Amino acid sequence: MSSRATAASAKEGIHCDDTSWVLTTLPIQAAFILTLSGVLAWLAWIRTTYAYPVRSRRVIAAYLCAVGFQLIHMSEEYVGGFPHEIVELFSSPRDWSERSFLLTFVFGFGALWVLAAAGSLYQIRVANFMLWFYALGAGVINAVSHFVFPVLKGGYFPGLYTAAGHLVLSVLLIVFLIQEWRRERALTEQAS
To answer: Is residue 174 a contact partner of residue 140, using CB atoms and an 8 Å limit?
Structure first.
């Protein structure tokens, strides 16, 4: 078995374990968003920056700015009682405490976002997956859902005020990731 196939198998196993945890502990709607994000990020990563890892500081700088804004966004969610609001909005049978929200999304994912930036500086491939996971999941899908939730509720929903900035930074990051991938691919093809 090639090293690429071995790495892909290991990553699939880790992703399945993560998906199992998400589906059994979080409210269904949050679990759906995370699972969809993981699948889309996996597809984008395998198609682009897996073979041509990010080298540009511009991509990493945009990513870190987006992560910084994510922390502001999660502050709005926390202050507004997002965990309770989403459970109530969808009549979820699973409760979601502020403590669980903070530990998982602010501290847990916050640490992963920072580690992904460090890993990207050294072209560590799995770090590039996390860039895509952030851009597509925590960024675009999360931001769009924050425009849908107030419509479903009929009023303000925690995270609405910061969703637009979050969306703009995430789309910018995706544009930079694609530009970087195209540039790296062209350089590799020219060299061979």
So the answer is: yes
With CA atoms as reference, report the closest residue to 160 among 65, 61, 44, 79.
79
Averaged pLDDT, 57-70: 96
Range of the domain at 35: 3-191
Inter-residue contact 54 to 180 (CB < 8 Å): yes
pLDDT (average), residues 121-133: 95
Reading the block at residue 78, the tokens are: 């926390």
pTM of the model: 0.85
Quote the crossing angle between the two packed helices 57-80 and 82-89, to the nearest 10°.
70
Domain tally, the chain: 1
Maximum C-alpha span of the chain: 57
Q: pLDDT tens digit string along 25-52?
A: 677 777 888 889 999 999 999 999 999 9
d(CA 147, CA 52): 34
